[in-house]
Amino acid sequence: MMSLTPFRVPFAGHTLVGDIAPCGDAAPLLILHGAGQASRERFRPIREDFWSQGLASVAFDLIGHGDTGGVLHQSSLISRTQQACAVIEALSLPQPLAILAASMGAYTAVKLLEHYAVDRLVLMVPAMYTA
């Protein structure tokens, strides 16, 4: 069974809550959830499968979601990218990054390309809000 290591990252008066599923020395896959009722928990089954195959992962709840809490409508697309950057920096995730993202998280993943080297990018039902 996958073992999770929780983490908390301060961000703009909130605390971003997430976890790491470490797997040996493997660089973790960053997972970004979508909007609405989504949270990192939606990805637990696929993370379990990845972990069983030797792939580590990192996931966290954006402001307004899951264990992070807060109010979704008070978070912007820019803030979501900044939240992801805060987690990447706080955890010192190695680059190039590998990212799996859904919906609104996919938009955030694409914006992360402006800040980090990414060599693996999987977007599921991406929500693209601007050209």
Give a verbal description of the structure:
- The chain is an alpha/beta fold and 131 residues long.
- Helices cover 24% and strands 28% of the residues.
- It has 3 helices and 6 strands, in the order E-E-E-H-E-H-E-H-E.
- Strands 1-2-4-3-5-6 form a 6-stranded mixed beta sheet, with helices on both faces.
- The longest helix is centred in the middle third of the chain and has 14 residues.
- The chain is globular.
- It starts with a strand and ends in a 7-residue tail after the last strand.
- The mean pLDDT is 94.
Question: Which structural traits does this protein have?
Answer:
131 residues; alpha/beta; 6-stranded mixed sheet; 6 strands; globular
Give the end-to-end Cα distance, rounded to a whole number of Å. 42 Å
The total of helices stands at 3
Secondary structure: helix percent? 10-25%
Strand-pairing-aware structural class:
alpha/beta
Strand content: 25-35%
- Which spans have pLDDT < 50 for at least 5 consecutive residues? none
Tell me, what's the shape? globular
Provide mean pLDDT, rounded: 94
Our Rg estimate from Cα atoms comes to: 13 Å
Q: How are helices and strands ordered from N to C?
A: EEEHEHEHE
Strand order of the largest sheet: 1-2-4-3-5-6
Q: Largest beta sheet, briefly? A: 6 strands, mixed
Total beta-strand segments: 6
